[in-house]
Amino acid sequence: MRPYLKDPQAIYAESFQTVRAEARLERFQEDMRPLITRVIHACGMIEVADRLVWSEGAYQAGHEALMSGASILCDCEMVGAGIIRRYLPAGNQVIVTLNEAGVPALAKEIGNTRSAAAVDLWGAHLDGAVVAIGNAPTALFRLLERIEAGAPKPAVILGFPVGFVGAAESKAELAANPRGCEFVALRGRRGGSAIASAAVNALAVGTPEGQDK
Amino acid sequence: MRPYLKDPQAIYAESFQTVRAEARLERFQEDMRPLITRVIHACGMIEVADRLVWSEGAYQAGHEALMSGASILCDCEMVGAGIIRRYLPAGNQVIVTLNEAGVPALAKEIGNTRSAAAVDLWGAHLDGAVVAIGNAPTALFRLLERIEAGAPKPAVILGFPVGFVGAAESKAELAANPRGCEFVALRGRRGGSAIASAAVNALAVGTPEGQDK
């Protein structure tokens, strides 16, 4: 069998050297570079750098929220599973309501998906939270709908729903930002839970230290 | 705010219509089409259809293993979190050893990553299992190394590690297949836990029923 690199520090160094060599990061403000670097690392695609959009204060707001112990609200279990707990010294709660017992009935009642109904259960946690959406466009649409209706604003919305129906549209709505929220999003169809978790991890500690693989 | 599609069945129908309209699925054998369809759906990228490789008996071996209750071995928690348990009537165990207490010490001992060391803890579960790798190239390399050294073969290896160091190489090694394993893999840097979970879900039940978002 072919030889392969086994030292986590060497893998880390080579990975990030590749990102720096191939990606165009000049247009990113300084504090966003670790985030885009982690996002690229999570999906293996250099070219997503060209589709990332964000509000100017997103990193600062997200980092401060995490450091002060804000809740992290995720649209699915996979996003929660990718958040590295040792990066969160304040012991932030990671909350996923998608599989709570009342969700299917609530989805029927509001005429929307289970993912959207799960957003309605975020309740008081929403105020000042870090929201990470890595699966369902309807969760992101529902969140924006609720903020428009007067729900409290999270500290930052990390918008990475994925797919062919509503993903590009919900992220365009987030990025148009008539509600004045802090946000990060990847335009278009691409996204996913690994990217959403990577964004949370980047807001917490910047780039990885080579212990992840 | 712009209107959006809220009915899960309609979202499902439109998503899969898009995949069928845009993807080139002619080269896929019949029983692999639900798997590639789910993989495309999981990552929002039609073009991954052109990079999927598989052994002829992969679907059959994987499906039968899942239906008969085989263990599902994953390289990280995110892959485990994406496996939809209601698709598994045999109540298969989903096993992730990455965060077991002995892993860091074992990694040092074998001079490899934690992800590789975790593979060494799969032990007796490996025989006839469904292996789903969605993060670490070193986990896939280590598995192949162990099989070469005489470890029992899993029923099927779903190889979707991601990234810039070893991902393409480990999947090329898997696909060259001197060990005669059943496998599915995505050539190149792209991969990830959502794709790996989607492949497991496809082996269990084919395409989704629209309840997923």
UniProtKB/TrEMBL annotation, chains A, B:
GO molecular function, one term: precorrin-8X methylmutase activity
InterPro entries according to UniProt: Cbl_synth_CobH/CbiC, CobH/CbiC_sf
Keywords on record: Cobalamin biosynthesis, Isomerase
One GO term (biological process): cobalamin biosynthetic process
UniProt keyword Isomerase present: yes
Pathway(s) where this gene product acts: Cofactor biosynthesis; adenosylcobalamin biosynthesis
Domain Cobalamin biosynthesis precorrin-8X methylmutase CobH/CbiC intervals: 11-204
Family, per entry: Belongs to the CobH/CbiC family.
Family annotation (NCBIfam families): PRK08285.1
Name used for this protein in its record: Precorrin-8X methylmutase
Classification of source organism: Bacteria, Pseudomonadati, Pseudomonadota, Alphaproteobacteria, Rhodobacterales
